[in-house]
Design goal:
about 140 residues; alpha+beta; four-stranded antiparallel beta sheet; 2 helices; 4 strands; about 10% strand
């Protein structure tokens, strides 16, 4: 009798491996998507925190005299080279008054820009910054 030297996997073995992989992907995919969403929210919070700090810094500057006081929700400054808005934009890294500061946000839409950020100032001069469901400082 001849002895056959089979070096490979049978079709049944390959199908079993593919089935096991499909089950693992089905179980792990929702967890992965949840972690991706958490990372986007975290990135949004970091961006808003930077904008919040820039606004607080600009308002604390004694040379800036046009800082907003006691407003409702207003769109974040996107242009200006002087005064409070210019100081905020330069702190955020914009050059020559351009609003080239962008951040990614699933909650505010991918590619959301500074235009989608809103801020308010209370009677005590405390700032709040928000986009979508995220607000800094947190409610």
């Amino acid at each position: 009798m001849k002895k056959m030297n089979n070096k490979g996997f049978s079709l049944v073995e390959l199908i079993i491996v593919i089935a096991i992989m499909a089950i693992l992907i089905g179980v792990l995919a929702p967890q992965y998507l949840k972690y991706v969403e958490k990372s986007r929210v975290s990135a949004d919070k970091d961006s808003l925190d930077g904008i919040y700090n820039a606004m607080q810094t600009a308002a604390a500057d004694p040379e800036v005299t046009d800082a907003p006081t006691a407003t409702g929700w207003t769109q974040c400054p996107t242009s200006g080279t002087t005064g409070w808005s210019g100081e905020v934009l330069s702190t955020l890294g914009a050059q020559n008054g351009s609003s080239n500061i962008k951040f990614k946000s699933k909650m505010a839409g991918n590619g959301a820009s500074l235009n989608s950020v809103k801020y308010s100032v209370d009677a005590n001069g405390n700032y709040s910054v928000s986009v979508g469901d995220i607000q800094i400082p947190e409610r």
